[in-house]
């Protein structure tokens, strides 16, 4: 983009105001322009940040802060995104019937307005547009793409991002089976969006009438999700929080249909509230986000805490732990993923034994996880005669693993029902985990006991994560460049065996800005920029497969602690 002056930016801002259908963002931008005209340096920098670049459309769709300008999320950008997606679908269409899209939205600020813009603009472009009946979890939208057999799906959500963010997440039907978009579709859609933005003011985009889906879509999701449960032989005492999101209404119906008693609720967080008043970040992984859940669990004497993030595509689980100040410990995403993967592996192996072999495709079934998730899943697959696939980060890749029966990523994402939802689903994962907890409770065992059994059978797999939030994104690029230019020979006193740079597209992966450090003894560190937040992420994994349970625990945790201390010093 050529260098812009304040005069250039003011001209662009005034053109933006002229096409913006939102009075709030029009007024916001007009006030900034007035301050720039008065010589306000801070306003000039703000205008430059909004107009010198554009919020990029990629494999995560669009996501950013709600505000005026092309580098923010707003009704202009969403309408341009909808027109671009419509152009892509119309270009791809191969039969006489028009392409179709189903649109969903959560409880964040502007989510419903953005969803209606998407539906109207796509309908006006000649795409059959169907809006879900009300605010609903992301997994219901992902389900609806396949259930309604649409060409695409759009979910308006920013998942667990800060309160003033929102986003537009895109799925494709047909051969993509309801998975999120990947290359080259993302670049093709982005090209269509850029063409619309350069040639057609939003006020000139035709808008049409959309359909509203009936409650039968939600009913079908509830039935399909409840069907994965095993009849509970015991009823664990459960505390549930929706984290101010949209999960509870659908979760309640699924629990009831699956035969589980109603949980105790974190009342302060159970209703949708886009302000997220009780948490700094509405993400169960963030420090303090589950404090209210732990307090409710102590009062109830709960066996489990179950938390969804605001759009209910993620699941967090906590169990009693007297060693913790709160009395409960949130399990890592790897711990939950390994237990769910083990459960699925046993079910698949049992079904195949009863049926006399693999399914009609000849595949024994695949367990898949992202390359930054625990390598313990491969040990589970190997022990049960299943295939294993490690993919790039994101469910857009995990969901495409051939023969998939289960997939997870360490960031609290789990895919336990691939026949109906090709994305992470915090509600179906909760039902699967509750089924496991109920079976163990009936046998007089706990989740903590089961984690120990896992360690003795497959090995103790420990992990941790270093996450560095930045305000200047160039800091992340600088750290990645420095690690490539000056690769370490040891970290935390553990020798580096090799460093793999995935930017070169090794091991059959598409090129990715990821470094993999493999250490003497088999420990592993992955370093990458976050795809959705301004963070540098470092993932640390180590395993111990010899000795007693305590010896394995000590060996694995010691290796992880040494690597964590070394990596913190290295990326500081």
UniProtKB/TrEMBL annotation:
Its cofactor is Mg(2+). The keyword Isomerase applies. SUPFAM superfamilies: Phosphoglucomutase, C-terminal domain, Phosphoglucomutase, first 3 domains. It comes from the Bacteria. Residues 55-196, 221-318, 363-453 form the Alpha-D-phosphohexomutase alpha/beta/alpha domain. The keyword Magnesium applies. Transmembrane segments: none annotated. Keywords: Isomerase, Magnesium, Metal-binding, Phosphoprotein. GO terms for molecular function: magnesium ion binding; phosphopentomutase activity. One of its GO terms (biological process) is purine ribonucleoside salvage. Residues 485-553 form the Alpha-D-phosphohexomutase C-terminal domain. Belongs to the phosphohexose mutase family. This is Phospho-sugar mutase.
